[in-house]
Specification:
Layout (H helix, E strand, L loop, with lengths): L12 E5 L4 H13 L4 E6 L19 E5 L5 H10 L4 E4 L6 H6 L2 H24 L7 E7 L24 H20 L3 E6 L1 E3 L8 H11 L3 E4 L5 E6 H14 L5 E4 L4 E3 H15 L12 E4 L14 H7 L7 H14 L1 H4 L5 H11 L1
Parallel strand pairs: 1-2, 1-4, 2-3, 4-5, 5-6, 6-10, 7-9, 8-12
Antiparallel strand pairs: 9-11
Length: about 350
């Protein structure tokens, strides 16, 4: 892991978009814990996956502010940058679920492309007005899905892998990545771009694979596994991702892209079996035991990428960051979190969520 204690000591004033979502809220907690003197302003639209309860322990703190609003609202973004004298944007706000992008791609283009464009334009104007301070940064948090799909023997994605997005979600993220790159190249805007592998950990919305499996096991519901379950993902514990992003902000070179991976390639069916074993071990009085009885293979989703894998050599060699949490350690932490935070996830299983679930899994 990078030695953040020796990073340049620059008091920062951050605008964190999407800071009430999964990765965003974990990053907000990380930053507020590591840099209590810094000003942190969270901007979040609080759509279905944004949850202000994720930040409840920070409410009322002197250096923290929450603003409900949309990143496409240029007037609001301008006002926040100016009145808060923001020098760093950490941009997490995004529509991020492939299944939802297949059902309704409109929101993905609006938020991921138009929203990112709005932030870039506002930050460019703000940066120019301050006469281009050297310490200002625009961090854009993206995904490995922009690179497309890998065959079993293909080398892992690197920062020079050509883009080949295969879903409306990944295409919209690719578009936002290209905008970020172009704004650095054209205007010398001090951008930083990261492409990460699949995250997991606390505050993960129940529609995603790991929390879905944990919650369905607790409820005795089927565990839907797409296709043959042989799709492979590289899993990154969200706490590790936060330290990587911290390192990129502190030490990254403007205009550069850094891939962030967990070095944990796992087949989907193997991951589900690991979760079943952990739930059988750690949970009491499960409705169905062993949990593997609940596994249910369902029709594969359209354009389902076969494998993702991240080559994170650049961030390791250039910035000194490496992941510290193995998939076994991270999954155990995550399962325990969901077992002990029923009051967090149970209200999220709303009628809208149930309608979505039925649309996807039937």
């Amino acid at each position: 892991m990078a030695d953040l204690q020796n990073a340049p000591s620059i008091p920062r004033r951050l605008l964190i978009t999407g800071g009430a979502g999964f990765i965003g809220s974990n990053f907000v907690h990380h930053w507020c814990h590591c840099y209590p003197a810094d000003r942190v302003v969270v901007l979040d639209a609080l759509t279905y996956a944004g949850n202000r309860a994720n930040l409840k322990d920070l409410e009322g703190k002197t250096n923290f502010r929450f603003v409900q609003g949309n990143i496409c609202d240029r007037t609001l973004v301008n006002s926040l940058l100016n009145e808060e004298e923001i020098d760093t944007i950490a941009h997490f706000a995004a529509e991020s679920h492939v299944d939802r992008s297949i059902l309704a791609p409109d929101a993905f283009v609006q938020t991921n492309v138009i929203g990112t464009f709005t932030l870039l334009e506002a930050f460019k104007q703000h940066w120019f007005a301050y006469e281009k301070p050297a310490h200002h940064r625009f961090l854009h948090v993206s995904t490995d899905e922009v690179y497309g799909s890998l065959q079993p023997d293909d080398p892992a994605f690197s920062e020079t892998t050509p883009y080949a997005p295969n879903s409306p979600y990944s295409a919209s993220k690719a578009g936002s990545d290209h905008l970020v790159r172009a704004y650095h190249h054209t205007y010398q805007l001090p951008t930083l771009l990261t492409n990460c592998s699949n995250n997991y950990g606390p505050y993960h919305f129940p529609e995603k694979l790991i929390p879905l499996m944990c919650i369905n096991i607790l409820l005795g519901k089927p565990l839907p596994v797409y296709g043959d379950g042989q799709n492979i993902r590289d899993w990154l514990y969200v706490g590790d991702h936060c330290t990587a992003l911290d390192t990129v902000i502190q030490k990254g070179k403007p205009g550069e892209t850094y891939n962030v991976g967990g070095n944990n390639e796992v087949k989907n069916i193997d991951l589900v079996n690991l979760l079943c074993n952990l739930m059988d071990e750690l949970a009491n009085d499960l409705p169905v035991s062993p949990s593997q009885k609940l596994i249910n293979f369902v029709k594969d989703r359209p354009g389902h990428d076969r494998r993702y894998a991240i080559n994170a050599n650049k961030i390791r060699t250039d910035l000194g960051w490496v992941p510290s949490v193995t998939v076994a350690e991270g999954l155990r932490k995550t399962v325990i979190w969901y077992l002990t935070h029923r009051e967090w996830w149970h209200p999220l299983l709303s009628s809208d969520y149930q309608t979505y679930y039925q649309q996807v899994y039937g």
